[in-house]
UniProtKB/TrEMBL annotation:
Organism for this UniProt entry: Meloidogyne enterolobii (Root-knot nematode worm)
Membrane-spanning ranges: none
Name of protein: Anaphase-promoting complex subunit 10
GO biological process entries: anaphase-promoting complex-dependent catabolic process; cell division; protein K11-linked ubiquitination
Highest classification ranks of the organism: Eukaryota, Metazoa, Ecdysozoa, Nematoda, Chromadorea
Annotated keywords: Cell cycle, Cell division, Mitosis, Ubl conjugation pathway
Protein family (similarity comment): Belongs to the APC10 family.
């Protein structure tokens, strides 16, 4: 059982896994429409996106399991961060996933494959592109992200993911707000409550 103090800090703890010198980064997860390939009752998108480490999405169907994230406009994307806990979830923990981005779910680029070995905590997935001329990394521009869970540990059938965020480049003003929320738990909870009140859940989709 996870205590309340742990859950209060969970939603902002992904910042600890960001690379040094990355600059201003924003959580843009709530700007998208989310769809799951399947979900066990009471273990769907709300549990995937809430700020709790003791809740999770559990798939409930045939592999591969997918998470589809769609934005209304072309959006700059830098990272995905995914919270996994092998100690609690064992064979439900993903060991191999593939991520594709593109202009739509019907026009996706070649997949990026990521593997995990008994992970615990936030896992960083870098989606930035590298400029060949100056060897600088730039944001991925996409309307859609498709995440496919290809394999679980111990060949498990269904999967558990306890948290997932989409991160994009931010402004200094927004970054100041993020720091303010991190210092003020009551304010952070207020904005979290407003977000979920505006959210509509139906048929595995969040809008």
């Amino acid at each position: 059982m996870v205590n309340d103090n742990s859950n209060k800090n969970f939603g902002r703890s992904w910042t600890s896994c960001l690379p040094e010198g990355v600059g201003h980064i924003n959580d843009i997860s709530n700007e998208a429409v989310w769809t799951l390939s399947s979900a066990k009752e009471g273990m769907g998108i709300h549990q995937l996106l809430d700020d709790r480490e003791d809740t999770f999405w559990q798939s409930d169907g045939l592999q591969p399991h997918t998470i589809t994230i769609e934005f209304q406009r072309r959006t700059p994307i830098d990272f995905l961060v995914v919270y996994l806990d092998y100690k609690l979830d064992e064979s439900y923990t993903p060991s191999k996933i593939q991520i594709q981005t593109g202009s739509s779910v019907l026009d996706l680029e070649d997949p990026k494959t990521v593997t995990f070995s008994e992970p615990t905590g936030w896992q960083l997935i870098d989606l930035r592109k590298e400029k060949t001329s100056k060897k600088q990394q730039t944001s991925q521009q996409a309307f859609a992200i498709v995440i496919q869970i290809v394999q679980n540990h111990q060949n498990g059938r269904d999967t558990h993911i306890r948290g997932l965020r989409v991160l994009g480049p931010g402004s200094a003003h927004k970054n100041m707000l993020i720091r303010a929320l991190a210092r003020n738990e009551a304010l952070a909870q207020h904005f979290s409550d407003l977000y979920f009140k505006k959210t509509i859940f139906s048929n595995g989709t969040i809008r």
